[in-house]
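Two quick folds needed for the group meeting slides. Do the first one here.
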Amino acid sequence: MTPPPARSLLARLAGQEDLNFLITNRIPRKALTRLVGWWSRIENPVVRDLSIGVWRLFADLDLSDARTTRFRSMHECFTRGIRDGARPIDPRPDCLTSPCDGILGAHGRVDGDTLLQAKGQSYTLPELLGGGTALERSLRDGQYLTLRLTSGMYHRFHAPHDCRVERVTYISGEAFNVNPPALKRIAKLFCRNERAVLECRLAGRSQSIVLVPVAAVLVASIRLHFLDVRLHLDYRGPSLIDCDAPFVKGGEMGWFEHGSTIIVLAPPGFRLCGDLRDGAHIRMGQAILEAG
């Protein structure tokens, strides 16, 4: 289907990297993020329809697998669930599956404690996770994948394996965009943005993997089902939260309020599955790492 002229023009403008970067990062990011968070929750049919209509101009919003297409607010549409069976979960016990739908960015082996953000940009495990812990040392020379969620995607994330979440570390920070133009231009972006570090002990193994949901502009809010608080720019609770939350593979863990990024970290002993390439569209439940 041919896109409407207005959307074609917006797509061309968005494709201009310098303009895209200026528009999405040289703005009062935190103030705008708070405003959008408030606006998106307004349960008014006119506000809802106008907001979703504007959203569609900028994003490929596909509701074909949504559990419902009737929403009280734009926020409900952002955080929508999907129909049972819409994302088959790879059942193999030696595989970790993708926690979310996303576009595959930098990935591969952690070089000591150094990971690639984009060409010419890198960061380290201590910078990402908070610094100097045994967990970081266990991930040296392991594997990592960067999964970027666009605004029109399914925004909930799920357990990559049977596991127990033993600790959440909340790290307050910035709200930069996390799209490719920003990743090329802002050093250590993932280490500067607001994020949560989820330590997940794998069932039947002594190893832990780590999921790092990274918030972004218009997005800076992360909801975890097993915590009774929402992690967001104005959160003032404890930064280290011990917990004991069991999940089966594919079980829903939480959601972003919009699109953003999840970084998956695994210790040595795992390898990437198949022929994964930069820019590939990954589906939640798809195998991404295997033991061996």
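Then this one, please, same format:
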Amino acid sequence: MTTNSPTDQYTFGMIGLGTMGRNLLLNMADHDFAVAGYDKNPAQSELLEKDGAGKIVKGFTELEPFVKSLKTPRSIMMLVPAGPIVDSVIAELVPLLDKGDIIIDGGNSHFTDTTRRDGELAKQGFHFFGMGISGGEEGARHGPSMMPGGDKTAYLTVEPVLTAVSAKVNGDPCVTYIGPGASGHFVKMVHNGIEYAIMQLLAETYEVMRKGLKMSNADMHEVFSGWNAGRLQSFLLEVTADIFAYTEPGASDILLDGIKDEAKSKGTGKWTSQIAMDLVTPVSAIDSAVSMRDLSKYKTERVEASKLYDTEYAGLDVDKDAFLIELEQAYYFAMIVAYAQGMHLLHSASAQYGYDLNLESISKIWRGGCIIRSTFLETMMEAYGINPDLKHLLLSPAVSDIINETQPGIRSVVGAAVMLGIALPTYATALSYFDAFRSADMPANLIQAQRDYFGAHTFERIGQDGVFHAQWQGDQAQP
């Protein structure tokens, strides 16, 4: 039965009883952990106790009795909006804690904030770690993928709880210790960047189907459902298929057709692109997805432009069934490139920040519970298992086999879309990235020559050590 006594000793505490915090706490209660939650909003506390009826669950609206109700050393997770609110909660919480207590930030905090908080709290004698959580409302309630990084002693203390509530794939828990510092939040940030890219690829696939192939919603539902039953199986594909069949009660048209074409974001995709540039690690598919979300917000300008330029699409003059086979190949190709770019960024960050990331383990915990879970992650996990030092996923023989098989499809799809005037920026950049990556001699020598010509920035020579500068103008210059 639900306990109402504030003197009971609870195993785990949660600050922030919104959808994610409440559902994760209820998930813990389902696994027989005694849990307590705190939220300033009495309605949230009452809802927790109502949903947790029959389990050892207690809701609080005052912070001090909440803290006192927890077993020591206390384990307290925050699931509150990222940014200043996290610092505010920590400031309120710290005076009520004892040295050795554990604070966990389960929100989508920027990894640099996590690094700072880790150092500040360690000096005060508290254990702290940041943990990325993926899976949304359903995942939190029934099994998310979790990415904890930071204080390993703290993680080991709460590991039994996290293991119990995580998603499971073939009996394997979708949680593991990621690494030191802010590694957990960094990995979750990159996870979200990959998510942005895959969502944009699905949106562009939709664009080809409706404008190029003139397909109905029912036809698109059938195609996406069919793809999801095969090698492309993934959570995002499943979600997409469902959307094309959903109508609100009493409505005759699917809800999708009534949704305004302006995509919102919370910043994690942008953060991924920003740090990738800092680490000199291109993630062009993610960059493109972020840019397209931004462009979608300029609805007024887009409507005005549509009146100036021809936006009538005659449709693709192709065999529809054959083209859909190529489109399936194109999506698989581009999806793999998105994963590969994200994993390359993790490889770079691991070296730069000393995270010592295990990319096989990260692939493993992404197979269940999280938003980017897919059948392909089995292949990705195996690639890093065979070669833990794999610098780039596209260098895996198993992955190269798939890329070689699907190349014709993406070349056909991108080419056809360009000729028709259908925007496929993320498909196109995935293909261009691949073509540049596989090139042993990029045209960057010309760029370096240009830099030396106008700015004396020097250059290196092929087969000759040293740094050089040429007199591009004057007597030595050749006409």
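Slide caption for protein two: The domain at 12-181 is CATH 3.40.50.720 (Rossmann fold).
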